[in-house]
Design goal:
There is one protein chain. By secondary structure, this protein is of the alpha+beta class. It is built from seven helices and 21 strands. The strands form five sheets. Strands 11, 12, 13, 14, 15, 18, 20 and 21 form an eight-stranded antiparallel β-sheet that branches. Strand 14 and strand 15 form a beta hairpin. The longest helix has 30 residues. The relative contact order is 0.10.
Length: 388
């Protein structure tokens, strides 16, 4: 039995004992430590080396409080120390001595029958490698093989840097390909002009192994952008919700790999000066729907990080305006049909306020398109200030 696929929040003594009974050996994704990492410089180096080697390679687990002989677990003895304080110490080291910061690293104390606690560290495979160990003026990179952690070779570093660049390329390619499909009318429901397309793309969706059962999306709040209710169905790609009709419609497609696509059409208001689109309405729709979609992905334990990408489709002639724009204020109609906004990376699940802050570059660009220096929804300190 491996602990890789177990719900991390439910791992208990029985699961750790099972590793011993099944003689699950140390390897690329698993390491046992009988004792806690020493607070000495040497102990800190060992912790950081082990951590970076896992996240730079394939991810995995460190089980602290498990004795081993030649890589096989022999006794689960736990730790005779303040485990909560130890977790804080390790967290401080992870935060200050690993660059870039590791996203999704989790620690769980496991109570044992002997009154002690073991400590399990779950280390995700990083989608932004390589992670360097910064300690005592040095900068070193580590990788991992079946024999354990080792300093990364030039070839291994080349692969890590290439993998990091490739994931961003693939995210951009998917977004552009799907935007082109919406532009050409290849959508589950007819969408009038102009249109917006929103993608939430887990980095793990573009790797191997992530697969979502579409039935797990049932009961989740998945209304399309610019809509508040929806009809639910299943299709070849996964789980689909739709809303509206006669072009003033929208849909959400949750793909089996965890990617969420939301699109809406007919989103502008027709005025005597031409079609307009309220910047505040777009901000509210994108922020609240991103929160809904991320909550749905969190529900099925899709790991962060995730990319959020927004595109305007067939926007030519539409002007971005504030809700209270004076009639005398000149409009700035869009001269190009399509608008691609800067991708935003969500490093961890959070609150609506967290997502609003993360989306600020997107909203600034939206207001720029209307002739404004930036989003009017944020104060001079960069914090969200507008009440919806």
């Amino acid at each position: 039995m491996a602990i890789t696929n177990l719900d991390f929040e439910t791992i208990g003594e029985r699961d750790l004992d099972q590793l011993k009974r099944d003689e699950v050996a140390e390897g690329i994704t698993l390491d046992y430590k009988r004792d806690a990492y020493e607070p000495s410089d040497e102990g800190k180096r060992e912790l950081l080396k082990d951590t970076s080697s896992f996240v730079n390679t394939a991810g995995g687990h460190i089980v602290i409080g498990m004795g081993e002989v030649e890589g096989l677990p022999i006794n689960l003895i736990g730790l005779d120390l303040d485990v909560d304080g130890e977790m804080q110490r390790l967290e401080n080291l992870f935060r200050t001595c690993l660059e870039p910061r590791v996203i999704g690293l989790r620690m769980r104390p496991v109570p044992l029958a002997n009154g002690r606690r073991a400590l399990v560290i779950r280390l995700p495979k990083s989608w932004n490698p390589p992670h360097a160990v910064l300690f005592k003026g040095s900068r070193r990179y580590f990788a991992r093989n079946s024999s354990g952690a080792h300093e990364a070779s030039v070839d291994e570093l080349r692969v890590m840097f290439t993998a990091s660049a490739t994931i961003f390329d693939r995210i951009g390619e998917f977004h552009h390909r799907r935007q082109a499909a919406v532009h050409s009318g290849k959508t589950p429901i007819a969408l009038a002009e102009p249109q917006l397309v929103l993608h939430v793309i887990p980095f793990s969706a573009l790797g191997a192994g992530l697969s979502i059962d579409p039935r797990t999306m049932s009961g989740q709040a998945l209304p399309p952008i610019f809509h508040w209710d929806n009809r639910n169905s299943y299709n070849f790609d996964g789980y689909l919700t739709t809303s509206g009709r006669d072009g003033h419609a929208g849909y959400v497609q949750v793909y089996r790999n965890g990617i969420v696509e939301s699109a809406a059409g007919g989103i502008s208001t027709v005025t005597e000066r031409g079609p307009t689109l309220s910047a505040e309405d777009v901000e509210d729709q994108i922020a609240t729907k991103v929160e809904h979609y991320l909550n749905a992905l969190l529900h099925v334990e899709v790991p962060p990080p995730l990319a959020v990408l927004l595109a305007g489709v067939r926007m030519h002639g539409t002007a971005i305006v504030p809700r209270s724009a004076p009639y005398s204020e000149p409009l700035v109609p869009q001269s190009e049909p399509d608008m691609f906004f800067q991708p935003v990376i969500i490093e961890d699940y959070g609150s609506l306020e967290d997502y609003r802050q993360a989306l600020k570059p997107v909203f600034d660009a939206l207001w720029n398109a209307g002739g404004y220096p930036g989003s009017q929804s944020y104060g001079s300190d960069g914090q969200w200030r507008r009440r919806s």
